[in-house]
Amino acid sequence: MENKEFISTIELAKILGVSRVTVFNKIKKGEIKAVKVGRNFIINRKDLDNILDTHVLNTDEKEQIKKAVKKVVSEYGETLKLLGDK
Q1: Are residues 45 and 70 in the same domain?
Q2: How does pLDDT run across 9-25, given as a tens digit for each residue?
């Protein structure tokens, strides 16, 4: 892998495991620092640590959470329903 100073929004989306639209929205909100070059945005690699510290869940983490929720609902579904009624 080459050591480029900047990465594209597509590359960042792949790193974060999110869509390009999500990256654009985070740039628009100021959550991700980016520089506009022509019609595109680029992100300085130096800023990656800060971006990753906000910790967007990757696909494996999302799957683990999904499995855990499914297990809890299957084991405690009735109890959760009763608690929800109160």
Answers
A1: no
A2: 999 999 988 999 999 99
